[in-house]
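Open question from group meeting: does this chain pack into something compact, or does most of it stay loose? Before anyone orders reagents, we agreed to write out a predicted structure and look at it together. Recording both the input and the output here so the notebook holds the full record.
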Amino acid sequence: MEEISIDLGEIGKFIGKYSLGRDNGMGSLHFLRIKIPAGQINAERIFEIASMSREYGRGYVEVTDRQDIQLHWIDSDKSLEIFERLYRLGYTTDLCGQGFSGACHGDVRNIIACPLSGKVSDFDVAKYAVSLTEFFSGNPDYIDLPRKFKIAFTACGSDCIRAGVNDLAMISVEKDGERGFTPLIGGSVGASFPGPSLAKHMPVFVPEDDVFEFVKAVVEVHRDYSSRESKVKARFKNLVASWGVEKVREVVEEKIGKLEDFKELPDLKHDVHNGSGKQVNGLHYFTLPLIGGVLDADRLDVIGELAEKYGSGEIRLTTTQNITFVDVEDVEALKNELSRHFRLYDSEVFYNSIGCASDFCGKTRDVHAKDMLRKLLEVVEKHGIKEDVRIHISGCHNACGCHHVAHFGLMGKLMKRNGSVVQGYDLYIGGDFRGLKMAKLYKESLTPEEAAEVLDDILRRYKQFREQKEQLNGNTLNEFLEVL
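Structure tokens returned:
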């Protein structure tokens, strides 16, 4: 049979690298999720994305919990024009696969990294996130995975990447004086089979020189062996659950050679680089909290301008939907200017809490995840609790807000009340992503108002519990929720 070849011309450069996601709410039909590898972006690119937001997305901008920037209200007729502008910027997008019913057309999503990679330690792991994102994006050998694949890197000693919810998380370690990584595999807290699962430790040491080939091999295991029977069974976590970690290791080692054992997973801290701190180069960082990652084009421009004025012109997006300024000499001057445009919260809960984009995907109504997050943050603020409290809100069982690994996790659903369908939430408590611990279901089918009342009651009782403790420590809330 004679081969048919088609000259795609200029459009060919977009194939496998760019797509629009599908929205179903707020009058938006399509969204644009821009990959920002390792969450690192400079002012020039910030200004261009702000301009694109004004021109194509009603001036609305979201920072996602995977260090992407997301725009909505995208007109599909202008997609090639938009992709061309991204192409000139050197950016690609997720290949959003909602339009495919089967197990196919999965891709490696934006690879995330510690937002202060290379700034709070001299081990700059972001370079792996950047090079691997570039390798996988548009690579024809890796754009038909059974389902999406999520990868993360950290080397700061804290779990600033929520390692346990990733398909593959690379945690920096040392072995006999040599730097490298030990991996977690098979995390995903969505509802797909076999249900919410936290990643499991593969007890191996991956030297720096082998990182690229190791990650590539794990993705190939997913590509070649994960189920293509149905979309619900196609995530890598299902393969890890059915095979076990040891068999995954064996197949990876068949590809790249034997790896040394590394039995002990590091005890990562909860620190997610909130507020300000000192970098290894003597300069400082400052993290600006954004509720639900919501911005507008004007304030995005302000961020770019202040990054140039007070820092190196670079910012980092965080996995808690915030913005981190790096290489800052005068933090107080930066904060003073930021305060004219943003509220600078001093409570940890405003830094650590996240809400998914459920108002656009059509999975919630009336009180969406980001609205609900604002409502619950007001409850925490009312109680004057400034310590580490994490509220994660997902609009549905797909768990885009990672509600299973927060102190307080809400999962949205539609429910019947008095003969009408209304917005409801299930409340989970006691999750701990650092400790690889799932939250437990506490209350089901709460209206937004009832959920706020339940949280109010829990925090009131928690304050009483805390006052009875002789010494306050970082685990007090975890201890309280354990027995609640």
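Observations to bring back to the group:
The chain has 13 helices and 22 strands.
The chain has a mean pLDDT of 94.
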